[in-house]
């Protein structure tokens, strides 16, 4: 691995469900899944999404002061693809919520934004034409 790798914390003991969702929605490849000692939560998962690493785990409040991990405000994960319509259809079909419809944008990409069932925000984009010369 190189660079920056997103590491998602999934609330509600739903990290195993999140791994399965990302496989359906974004064609993620599962590289590893490690259960916690309690047999219920997921300690760590490693996925590859469109050639990039993504890691995640269940929330473990006992390791950060007893409260739930903060909500994923202000963070969006961008998925650069060759065919935005195909990737979009797959994600929406798997249950992602549309927050900004997929459309041709002034900067030259076909682009839209989604929220997954675990509260994380995603954008999907692919070059579609030359940018506007404004």
Automatic annotation (TrEMBL):
Name by which UniProt lists this protein: VOC domain-containing protein
PROSITE patterns: VOC (PS51819)
One Pfam family, short name: Glyoxalase
Occurrences of domain VOC (ranges): 1-127
InterPro entries tied to this protein: Glyas_Bleomycin-R_OHBP_Dase, Glyas_Fos-R_dOase_dom, VOC_core
Domain of life per record: Bacteria
